[in-house]
Every structure is written in structure tokens, then in C-alpha cells.
Design goal:
The protein contains no helices and eleven strands. With 121 residues, the protein is an all-beta fold.
């Protein structure tokens, strides 16, 4: 059984910073990629940032220069450091991980429950 658990969400003022964490646990052979998506009410879930275990990174244009994604392979944990936050960053942030649980299954995506980030004065 694989668990993906996010933490670090909360309420911050515009211009503030917040760090999200996502830890993966359970029976895992390997992790290929982890990342963050977000979803605001009435909108589609959108990519925020992804990172591979080799530390290749991709960011949405809207967060480039403000957000930094990192990964600790030994801890199976990904982080999203968010700075210069804007009200439009308000959303539920979901962590995902492409995980190799068994060789027969291949890679599958696992999702966390989400953590709320609210940017407001």
C-alpha cells in the first residue's frame, strides 16, 4: 500500500512564502517523477511543477521564478518552495508521484489528498 501525504498548506498574505511537502511511503521499488498540481474552484487541475529523480524540472509559466521544486530521493519526499505568492495562487495543491510498485505493473500515478493554499490579505 502506497501513501502520498501533503503538508504545509495554509493562509498567507500576498508576497509571502510557503513551503509544501509531500512524502511517499509504502511498498515501493522506485519513483520516477513527482510533482504538484493545483485546482481552484471552477477550474481544471493544472500543472504547477514536476521533478524527476534525476532532478529534471518543469514549471508552469505562471510560477517560474517564484516557485522551486526539489526532491529528496532518500526520503521519498518532494518540496515546493513558494515565494512572492499572489492571490491567483490560491488553490488546493495536489502532490503526485509516478511510482514503480512492482515490475509487472510498471509506473502508476499516485495522488495525495491535497492541501489548501490561500493567499489573501
Amino acid at each position: 500500500q502506497v501513501q502520498v501525504v501533503e503538508s504545509g498548506g495554509g493562509l498567507v498574505q500576498p508576497g509571502g512564502s510557503l513551503r509544501l511537502s509531500c512524502a511517499v511511503s509504502g511498498s515501493i521499488l522506485d519513483i520516477n517523477r513527482m510533482g504538484w498540481f493545483r485546482q481552484a474552484p471552477g477550474k481544471e487541475r493544472e500543472l504547477v511543477a514536476t521533478i524527476t529523480v534525476t532532478r529534471n524540472r518543469n514549471y508552469a509559466d505562471s510560477v517560474k521564478g517564484r516557485f522551486t521544486i526539489s526532491i529528496d530521493n532518500s526520503k521519498h519526499t518532494v518540496y515546493l518552495q513558494m515565494s512572492s505568492l499572489k492571490p491567483e495562487d490560491t488553490a488546493v495543491y495536489y502532490c503526485y508521484a509516478d511510482i514503480l510498485r512492482t515490475y509487472a505493473e510498471g509506473l502508476n500515478a499516485y495522488w495525495g489528498q491535497g492541501t489548501q493554499v490561500t493567499v489573501s490579505s
